[in-house]
């Protein structure tokens, strides 16, 4: 699924207490083939459930329609109350492009979904964000202003005629807001106060929209307006952030509820630290935080790096350690355990049916290699040796970064460690890619070859698979060669007690490159395109020759130094 055209849908339903009703809605989503339900996050006091699912655009739109239809049947807005703003049984239904789909395409899918809801369910539908038809409707807060209680009057205003469906008040279902937007992270900061007024003050301090400017007293003074009669706003400190303060009886304290609409502009860790600063200035403490829905892996890794750098520590560590650092630093497990496999979108989308070599223990990998199966073989083992070489260089960089007396050099070595981790990850990926490339050749040979068309298709598939099987070890050589920069630096300037570790890394990388070169040579023998085969061998030979020179240089220097 990860390589398909994917969009994510994150509908918010105005029900967070009756899980039977939520189950009826999510059952409708799961009834659509090709859709994966990722997360169901109910809130009792907000009386709202955020659901996340992903799939091909057409399947997602079908699942979203069924969910909206079911929500309109099981949720009665006339009896709804909750802390979160809302306007309908399905309050908002945004589509988010994940891969292979542009924002423009996502907006068209959203408008198609909105049209169908309006026509087939006879509900008033507004389009927002990238799917909006006019500027004032881009902002969700503008569309939802007045909420459910003001919806009847709103529908009577020609300026707020629905984009689709009738301008008729449906007391049970309310209205639906459908849109297309970038990935949004819903993130709440927990406070050591029960005061909604103080929570709102902090929210106004940080949110991009800020607060209304007032004459004299900032709380009770007259609101200052511009020439058009609109309130003059004092912007908050964080761009691309929407925020309000509320009290959650279930928890017994107030929160700052934030929507981070562009985590490239304001990442989660920046929002958390800024709320901490603003809260502290008002005598309030942030005790932890809560993630509502899902978060991209990059956001958690960036947060982990940020907090390690704040400690002047190297972030050249595993993803697991970075994620755990982020969880601890932001108190993400204060209310309930934060489980990365359930909250990080890439981990949920990961193909759980795929048995990856790199997920095996070292012992299991060795025994799998020694089995009678031809794969994994020399190509995968070469990539693994390259990853180990990079790991040794990263280790020396981390030891150097944390070496007593070298405090002023921590950033220099931390930077090398982080580069090493990137190379490690890529070479680990190539462990599996080499075996997959070999298996692709076998699969191509299994294709039928009865008719002339089948024979031609089989021959083309074999040639393409053989070319790929030649390119993968060549890629291993290129990636491993990049590790030499790290190892040269670490053996020359790193922690002197670990110089031999760096030297072993050089030998491992050299073995990786030499082994991968042998795989290039044997695989290109199967290519019909001999000119391409010669080109690949020439390129690989140049890398191998250069690697031999670098090995001789570094190992020669280390050996001489050890002899002194």
What does this structure look like?
The protein has about 575 residues and is of the alpha+beta class. It has three domains: about 5-180, Formiminotransferase, N-terminal subdomain (Formiminotransferase-cyclodeaminase, Chain B, domain 1); about 185-350, 2-Layer Sandwich (Alpha-Beta Plaits); about 360-564, Formiminotetrahydrofolate cyclodeaminase monomer, up-and-down helical bundle (Four Helix Bundle (Hemerythrin (Met), subunit A)), CATH 1.20.120.680. About 50% of the residues lie in helices and about 15% in strands. It has 17 helices and 13 strands. The protein has helices at about 20-30, 55-75, 105-120, 140-145, 150-155, 195-205, 270-280, 295-310, 320-330, 340-345, 345-350, 360-370, 380-400, 410-445, 450-495, 500-525, 530-564; strands at about 5-10, 10-15, 35-45, 50-55, 90-100, 125-130, 175-180, 185-190, 210, 235, 240-250, 255-260, 285-290. Strands 1, 2, 3, 4, 5, 6 and 7 form a seven-stranded mixed beta sheet that branches. Strands 11-12-8-13 form a four-stranded antiparallel beta sheet. A hairpin with a 4-residue loop joins strand 11 (about 240-250) and strand 12 (about 255-260). Helix 13 (about 380-400) runs antiparallel to helix 14 (about 410-445). The termini are far apart. About 45% of the residues are buried. The model has no long low-confidence stretch (mean pLDDT about 95).
